[in-house]
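Dear colleague,

Thank you for sharing your sequence with our group. We've completed the structure prediction you requested, and as agreed, I am returning the results in plain text so they can be pasted directly into your records. Please verify that the sequence below matches your submission; if there's any discrepancy, let me know and we will rerun it promptly.
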Amino acid sequence: MLIRSWDRGDEAEWRAWLAEGRDFGLLAANGGRGEGPVLVPTHFLLDADRGEILLHLAAPNPLLAAVRADPKVTLAVTDGYAFAPGHWRGAPGTPTSYYASVHFHCTAEVVESAAGKAEILNRQLAHFQPETPEVRVVPGEGELARQLPGLRGLRLTVDEVRAKFKYDDKKPAEAQYAIADRLAERADGRGRGRDQYAAARAQLLRRHRRRTDGPRGAAGPVGDAPRADLPRTVDRRTERPRAAD
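Please find the predicted structure tokens below.
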């Protein structure tokens, strides 16, 4: 993923963005020789304190074989996307896409033991289904435990995080506000993708407020999330840790 200096997101920003409830992404592993990547859409649980991501898959899922051959994987979370026509953006009238995307580059471990799988499932249930604390997996007990042989856990150790918030931050305020009005028109209409146009508008205005240090608005501030022991974002052009913009 190409990240320009004006699109780059720092740790506080991407952590706050994920904490809004974004816990579904696309997990990619390297395929075999002559094959493309193996991709799986999946819910996941980010454990920031441990610097790891937890999920589970059905045992026949081809991604597991790919991970056993090469444990390096990438989990991508993307949201707030919209198409911006060229006439919205002024000269030279080049259209573009707006989106926010966070990529976790990880080392994956397949969890085979019943106890290990139960731990992952219970932590996911506590996160995604907190209203039923009595529903938990205990190896050897109950219907959920009988399903354990058909599942495999995945523990992803986070090696690197790359975040991009692409909302024309290089343009002056007047241009950004005009584009926000256009996005609002699309969001208010009955056309396809109106929710995403509303989400893109919220991100564009949030990024603008952040860049100009303006008043905090309805979209909410960034930077208030606590820091975790996750790897620092790395600029792959130099492969050296860098300070946030």
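Summary note from our side: The chain has six helices and nine strands.

Kind regards,
the structure core
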